[in-house]
Amino acid sequence: MKVAIDGPAGSGKSTLAHALAERLDLTMLDTGAMYRSVTLACLEGSVDLQDDEAVTEVARRVRIEFQTAEDGSQRVILDGRDVSEAIRTAEVDADVSRVSAIPAVREAMVEEQRRLAATGDVVAEGRDIGTVVFPDAEVKVFLTADPEARAHRRALQRNVEDPEEEQVILADLKRRDEADSTRETAPLVAAEDAYRMDTSGMTIEEEVQKIAALVEDAKAPVPSVANDHDEREGERESAPAEVAKATVHDSSAEKPKPAAKKATAGKDASNEDKPTGRMRVFAHHEPDEFYDTAERDFPITSRALLGATIGVCGILSKVLWHWTLEGGEKLWKAKGGQVVVMNHESMLDPVIIVVSGWMHGRRMRPISKSELSDNKIARWFFARVGAIPVERGTADIKAVRRAQRALQRGEDIVIFPEGTRIHSDDQEVTIHGGFALMAQLAKAPVLPIAIVGARDGAPGGNKPLCPGRVYMKVGDPLTFDQIHEKSRKKRAKEMERLAMERVYELRDELRAEHPGKM
Fold it and tell me: 113-122: per-residue pLDDT in tens?
């Protein structure tokens, strides 16, 4: 679980994040303290803050730790010494915006922040957490407050009683607001899906209760699409309920991970992109571990099984159905993961597209219905060949997150939004559109592909195997940049419509090119 809290200086981000971390047993990742620590190290080392290379060298060299003190407070440790108070001085305030605006410094800090988050559930606060550092955060909050209220809070933090000094703080906050919101690298802006909260008249307890409720909502299953939420300005919209035929079915309850009590930023930080680390070859692995692990990190025995399965299926399917893929380079040469959506004619469809992708170096993970995993042997096998099961007719955010993580690792997700094999053009079809949410969260393109001929020749139900010819055609990738709706929910709906419209256009083009193929 990642909770991202963004907002301008003095809006109460740190206070809220600390209280939330204590309430929900999360690790507090104070990203602002990291930039302040770099600034302090530069000031103490007489480093010219106008020398970007020198400042960047400091950012890459220093070692920053977050430790929990005996009284429960979190301390910031810079190169082995406690700088929790030293980084909150006016001198650091005056220069931290300059330091944090250096692109190379931000790159170094963002890399460390992501590594820190790999150690457990975290709440992070800053100015670009939800937009740059953790765009996949389950909960994003953007705090606002009147400048005067923020200046007064900062004055109280520093035990400042002189009204004139408070006016100096106010002027400095306004200057920082301008600098943070207009800088070229990671400017201060609210994430599109962030919950906006004005804290001017709120107590810290009210703030914590509100965000804690958002965290609980994020952990719960996605509500039914029939439960229509208002789309008011600044509020998060509910996720589409039906996720790629449905969402993940997991027979064993997923236990929350314990929060890390100490996180370290530096050269020794872990760079894992999965929760459990590399899987050991001879260890016993539950299917869940395969669903949440990159295929490249499967044990060698499982990778061998996957390769053998792909090889056998590839040879048999090519010999029996002599399939071809028109425009395949749009799939094979793509950079990063894609959400592949197809019409569904037979059991042959996922086999061909996965084989085709593998032949050209793509790692493709089909979304399969959970019924295929009811049998223990089948569940064992499908987990090891990369499939992610879903239970149709339900909604579970876990499926979305698994697909999102796979896409962000560069793996492709293969989905059949029709949800079942279509045996006739007269058959009633219900499109399950959760694929758009997966693409939206992972910032991945949607790739429409059509297939014809599989209905004629592949087995299914009581239908015997009948060799023939199968044709596929790849369309141009669709991105959310092409959609002009402002609402997140409406953008997802429009992507669903565009993608399936294009799939059927490609199918009709193939039928025209190959008369008689259905």
Answer: 888 787 778 8
